[in-house]
């Protein structure tokens, strides 16, 4: 179907050694027959994602980006472990098939999973899907519900009890992302010191109900059913998953949630269709999560501000690589400007906050 997310040609400098990869996959995944072809999913700015086709079977390969990377980022084994443990309890996970850290194959660890073919919404909802305002509202609610379902998983029961340290999670996130932002700072972006100071002063206490959090939950990381585009059938990109405060997860989602009446510069960097007629506002989204979860939203401003700041930090780490010539991906040239836009958005939250 035409709405199924499509892979394209592999970008220059990001090709795989197809012979070695094909030989490895045939050794570890039973039943692979036929010639192997490799394409690349063009979106995403962190881990690289490839579509591997062997005969009639479609697989997805994930590997770290070329060049230097954050010390704790792009952990392929961690991502593979999450999917393997979480799959039986959370039906939206892709099924992991193989992991290796053999440097002779690709020079880095990577893993392979089954592909979930479906619709992935990016900047705009295709008109041909025929979604009206009421459909968009229902889809927004389904997105929040799927996140809440993740937060309800018994992480100890599935063997992920030692996957993170919920106690002190918020404080570690604030100090950790402040450190990362300063380390990735370049002369052409804001220093964000005012935002970091405010976050350090306004931190909420530890949650009394820690859970598994995705940490990058947004429309273009979920897969919709091609036969019913209001239904979510997959959740992708588990590289930042850990145990922590679920409202930090929600705040990260809010950072991507650009409304139709937001400042023009926010609309310019919008990557998902949250300004569409029928979309919930950020406040409505938060109220809906509060309704289904029973959790207090007293620190809403903090979680949203931190989400914006963390996103600025992620963007700035990517821009740092481009600024210093560690990647030639032209998509990253404008990332410094995006960092500035997000920092200004965080400041606006601070200015209006009652915390």
Describe the secondary structure blueprint for this structure.
Blueprint: H1 18-28, E1 36-40, E2 48-54, E3 57-63, H2 76-86, E4 96-100, H3 103-106, E5 110-114, H4 133-151, H5 169-184, H6 193-201, E6 211-213, E7 222-225, E8 228-235, E9 242-244, H7 246-256, H8 264-268, H9 282-293, H10 300-323, H11 335-352
Antiparallel strand pairs: 1-2, 2-3, 3-5, 4-5, 6-9, 7-8
Question: TL;DR of this structure?
Answer:
This protein is of the alpha+beta class. The protein has helices at about 20-30, 75-85, 105, 135-150, 170-185, 195-200, 245-255, 265-270, 280-295, 300-325, 335-350; strands at about 35-40, 50-55, 55-65, 95-100, 110-115, 210-215, 220-225, 230-235, 240-245. The strands form three sheets. It has a five-stranded antiparallel β-sheet, sandwiched between helices.
Q: How would you sum up this structure, described in words?
A:
The structure is a single chain. This protein is α+β, with helices and mostly antiparallel strands and 355 residues long. The chain folds into two domains: 18-114, Phosphorylase Kinase, domain 1; 127-352, Aminoglycoside 3'-phosphotransferase, Chain: A, domain 2. The protein is 39% helix and 13% strand. The strands form three sheets. It has a five-stranded antiparallel β-sheet, sandwiched between helices. A hairpin with a 2-residue loop joins strand 7 and strand 8. Helix 4 (133-151) packs across helix 9. The model has no long low-confidence stretch (mean pLDDT 93).
């Amino acid at each position: 179907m035409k709405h199924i997310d499509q892979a394209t040609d592999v970008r220059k400098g990001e090709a795989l050694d197809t012979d070695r990869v094909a030989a490895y996959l045939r050794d570890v995944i039973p039943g692979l027959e036929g010639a192997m072809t490799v394409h690349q999913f063009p979106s995403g700015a962190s881990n690289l994602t490839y579509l591997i086709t062997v005969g009639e079977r479609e697989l997805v390969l994930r590997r770290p980006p070329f060049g230097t990377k954050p010390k704790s980022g792009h952990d392929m084994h961690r991502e593979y472990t999450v999917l393997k443990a979480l799959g039986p309890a959370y039906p939206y996970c892709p099924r992991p098939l193989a992991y290796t850290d053999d440097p002779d194959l690709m020079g880095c660890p990577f893993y392979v999973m089954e592909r979930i073919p479906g619709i992935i919404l990016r900047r705009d909802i295709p008109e041909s899907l025929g979604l009206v305002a009421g459909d968009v509202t229902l889809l927004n609610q389904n997105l929040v519900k799927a996140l809440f379902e993740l937060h309800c998983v018994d992480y100890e029961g599935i063997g992920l009890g030692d996957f993170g340290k919920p106690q002190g999670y918020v404080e570690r996130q604030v100090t950790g992302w402040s450190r990362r932002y300063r380390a990735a700072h370049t002369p052409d972006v804001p220093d964000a010191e005012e935002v970091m100071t405010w976050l350090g002063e306004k931190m909420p206490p530890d949650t009394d109900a820690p859970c598994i959090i995705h940490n990058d939950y947004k429309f273009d990381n979920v897969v919709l059913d091609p036969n019913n585009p209001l239904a979510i059938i997959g959740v992708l990109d588990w590289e930042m998953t850990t145990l922590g405060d679920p409202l930090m997860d929600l705040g990260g989602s809010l950072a991507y949630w650009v409304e139709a009446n937001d400042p023009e510069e926010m609309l310019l960097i919008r990557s998902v269709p949250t300004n569409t007629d029928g979309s919930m506002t950020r406040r409505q989204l938060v109220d809906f999560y509060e309704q289904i979860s029973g959790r207090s939203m007293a620190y809403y401003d903090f979680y949203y501000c931190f989400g914006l700041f963390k996103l600025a930090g992620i963007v700035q780490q990517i821009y740092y690589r481009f600024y210093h010539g560690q990647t030639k991906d032209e998509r990253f040239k404008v990332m410094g400007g995006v960092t500035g836009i997000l920092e200004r958005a965080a400041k606006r939250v601070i200015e209006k906050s009652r915390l």
